[in-house]
Amino acid sequence: MTRIITVASHKGGTGKTCLSVTLAVEAARANGARVALLDLDPQRSACAWAELRSEAAPLVVPCRDGDLEHYLSEARVAGFDTVFIDTPSGGGKATDRAIASSDLVVIPVRPAFLDLEALQPTVTSLRSHGTRGLFVLAQVPARGQEEDAARRDLAARFPRIPVASVRLGHRKDFERALGLGLSATETRSKRSIAAAEGRLLWEAIRATCAGSAQARRSVSGVS
Ligand SMILES: Nc1ncnc2c1ncn2[C@@H]1O[C@H](COP(=O)(O)OP(=O)(O)O)[C@@H](O)[C@H]1O
Ligand SMILES: [Mg+2]
């Protein structure tokens, strides 16, 4: 079964594209895994990143709003394991449909007041479609109490949406990798903290998706 993971947040610059490419690279690393990344953002940041790459995987596809359902059904028919959808800031109908079609929506959140304030529309969309969400703290500063404060704030505001225990720090390695058409997990500094964060985050998300697929099968009596 093709699992669909949308990366969304209404706020701009939270790290959606950085997170999308990092997760897609990690997902594609598994033996024989077929992974696509649909770039739903008219800015085409993920496509610009893909143009710098020499590796074929993950497959990055520019996706106009009206083509979303078509590409998702093609990916299912072709037997892709995972499709990521990188979305534009500001939401919109296509992002809402991506959220409706997804098994999981990953929401990057910078631990700062205006970012926390901007989460409601994304959460409203998840809730209206009954799609699972996962907050990922991103661009966390190296020092300070921001991460703990943001975790408390998220738990108070949105108690039903978990916050990933793995977070992404604000690290030059993420930015440098993007400019090379790589993910931080692929650069020469593969042992960097950024690389470890990227790998661990995908492991956590993969486990979350596997757990929910198992739960769905047992609810429907398949296993
Ligand atoms: N964890 C991070 N550490 C440092 N810089 C980051 C990180 N994540 C994203 N960035 C940088 O922040 C900017 C916005 O990130 P981007 O992924 O384009 O956000 P979005 O897609 O949500 O608009 C980019 O310049 C990107 O290189
Ligand atoms: Mg983007």
Automatic annotation (TrEMBL):
Q: Where is the signal peptide?
A: none
Organism (species): Tranquillimonas alkanivorans
User: What is this protein's record name?
Assistant: Chromosome partitioning protein
Q: Which top-level group of life is the source organism from?
A: Bacteria
